[in-house]
Write a structure and sequence with these properties.
single chain, Cytidine Deaminase, domain 2, six-stranded mixed sheet, 10 helices
Amino acid sequence: MSQRIIGIIAGSGIYPEEFMAAARAKAPDARLVMAAFKGETRQELADQADTSAWFRVGQLGKMIKFLAKEGVPEAVMVGQIAPRNLFDLRPDIRTAMLLARLKQKNAESIFGAIAEELAKDGITLLPATTFLEDIMPSEGLVCGPELSESAIEDAKYGFNIAKEISRLDIGQTVVVRNGTVLAVEAFEGTNACIRRGGELGKGKDVTLAKVSKPNQDFRFDVPVIGPDTVKNCAESGISVIAIEAGKTLMLGGEKVFAMCRDGKISIVALP
């Protein structure tokens, strides 16, 4: 039986690190081939792969050529790419042609087109939750203090608003307080939304809600929370984080539990 080869298209943050650890644990004989991005991927992480190469964001053709040359039949996309790098794209020919044919240039359409380009070279894009299914919390209180009735109502309200903005492909996160929407995530990302919502809520009874999109393509743009999310919530006075049960990755495990305990922040998973 031939050795399994898995490509890792890695951005920044702890997401690629947790994927790498889970892959080593659950597929110990697999060969891990990493496409790393300058200014995004940590050097130490790239060094842990069996083979790695570095690319600028926008070098799609070169990246796919590398993965194909390494015999990669399946790959995952994990981690973030900073908006500044998306604006300073300097695309190669393959990337430019991909962007030119897109009517809408949002995350879903761009990542979907990248998946199609990978498939042209025989590379199947796997769900970004591969090997990580056990860190997607089920329904109920995940950690932190029990919620009051009013806090539960606010969590449900924020959750429903977040579902609607995700349906419109605006973002996947909102910040609410007492039935009022304080901030909506757009291109600036979750952390900027948290800071703005916390400032407007004056750090009291503020709730963050983060959800998946309707018909979420779990190959990319999966809802994720982790230590940075909790840290930013603590600094912004947000006391409740509502996530979607079974559809949100909670990275950082024990560290997140400790931070929630120390900061008196509750994480609740809603259906």
